[in-house]
Amino acid sequence: MEARVSSAPMADVERTWRSVARVSGFTAAFALVVATVLYLLDATSAIGSDPSYHATDAGPLEDEANFWVAFFAHRHHVLWDVIGRDTLFPVAFVALAVLMVAVRHFVGADDPRAQLVTVFFLFGGVLSAIADLIYLGNVEWWRITGWSAQPAERMVAIGRSTETIGRLTTWLEAAGFVLLAAGLVALGRLCRTQARLPVRLALLAELEALLLLGVAVAGVTHVDTPYDILALVTGVLVGPAVAVWLAVCLGERRRSPT
Predict the structure, then answer these.
(1) Within a domain: residue 258?
(2) Is 1 among the domain residues?
(3) pTM
(4) Whether residue 151 has a cis bond before it, omega within 30° of 0
(5) Chain segment 78-131, per-residue pLDDT in tens
(6) How far is CA 78 from CA 43, 74, 142, 246, in A?
(7) Is 257 part of any domain?
(8) How do residues 218-253 score in pLDDT, each as one tens digit?
(9) Residues 147, 148, 149, 151, CA torsion sign
């Protein structure tokens, strides 16, 4: 009777952790895929192109003011895309952090690599999520219609303030991706030593780490095409595959030895 009573809570805990792993893994994969697709729709001009700056006889100040009016109008047109992706990306990063807490539970909290996985994913996910949420703050400007190029000084000041917000997120996002890459390397090492994790997942995790480093470098050097290609492979293919693989592996019930 005592063994039955004491084992029941343990079984409940294990069942809860399996559920946590499944939900967080599939949530992360879904959010990554949808958010990345939304980003690429905007980045590849599939839902409209950003306006170009045109020099006229009105002078640089008036020309820039007109550019920002057109830019804000386009951002208002794709506002649903911006809100969707910069909401789903933080969801994905939080879900990944929760998934790594589940990994730490199943492989044992005493393993230093498991602790490193948790720390890197927690801080990397927080930095990446903050970068998206800061950029999302531009919605407060873009949701407003009827912007005017007069007075030009005001429009240029507002436009450049939104540009500054975008620049600030570049390095914050890169730092988050570097930390996530470090966590994936630690996860790969963990997969090669822990029976609860599939050995073949190690290579996929390390590939994702390399891709994330590529995204970080492409972002801070402002090379758009490599950034978009790496984002596609990372956010639609490899990253979701890692999350789903872990969700399935940790979410299945282990058979007791007979």
Answers:
(1) no
(2) no
(3) 0.90
(4) yes
(5) 999 999 999 999 999 999 999 999 999 988 878 888 999 999 999 999 999 999
(6) 11, 7, 9, 34
(7) no
(8) 999 999 999 999 999 999 999 999 999 999 999 886
(9) negative
